[in-house]
Amino acid sequence: RVKMNDEEILVCAVQLGENFCLYFAGLECDAFSKEKILHRVLRNVNSQLLVVRPDLNIAAFEDVTDQEMKCGNGMHFSIHYYKTTTPSAGMPVAFSVQVEDKSYYMCCEKECGKTIVQFKEGEVPKDIPGESNVIFFKKTFTSCSSRAFKFEYSLEQGMFLAFEEEGGLRKLILKKLSSKDEVDETMKIT
């Protein structure tokens, strides 16, 4: 990183020139470009599936029957993987889901001073030139569970997708991880 005019710029060494002069190239910060899409169901630690119900403005982990899963309404997610200029943060992903004949994407919005998870009608963008409220960084849940992940919100470091009990539902929320060494099972997604 180089500081120029009170602005930090990410640079990368690209060439060693004559007299051992090192040349740098500036990198665009936080630029994302869609690379691939995987289709998955998302499960919590209790093996419940994440189900999106836009008509009720709810996304919650629920027990689902085989018949309901075949129908798949609001349960089969597209995980959009992006290339990034800052790979150290984790694999950038965005989520979308089909409910009936409409597509919804996951994003986070500030509401009454708290960041909440929402699903809005529309498509995930192909290219994101800067920061975005739809990007989450996919990280391995723990070093010994390679098939489980946690998803950190790109605009708030230490805030992860999780679930919280509320009125008999396990609602999808953003939750602060109190320390890097903490293992919080509510953030575990397979």
Describe this structure in words.
- The longest helix is centred in the middle third of the chain and has 6 residues.
- Strands 4, 7, 8, 9, 10, 11, 12 and 13 form an eight-stranded antiparallel sheet that branches. A four-stranded antiparallel sheet has the order 5-6-15-14, with no helix packed on it. It has a three-stranded antiparallel sheet with strand order 1-2-3, with no helix packed on it.
- It contains one helix and 15 strands, in the order E-E-E-E-E-E-H-E-E-E-E-E-E-E-E-E.
- With 190 residues, it is mostly beta strands.
- The N terminus is likely disordered.
- The chain has a single domain, classed as Trefoil (Acidic Fibroblast Growth Factor, subunit A).
- 25% of the residues are buried.
- It starts with a strand and ends in a 14-residue tail after the last strand.
Provide the descriptors you would attach to this structure in a database record.
190 residues; mainly beta; Trefoil (Acidic Fibroblast Growth Factor, subunit A); eight-stranded antiparallel beta sheet; four-stranded antiparallel beta sheet; 1 helix; 56% strand; globular; disordered N terminus; cytoplasm; secreted; IL-1_fam
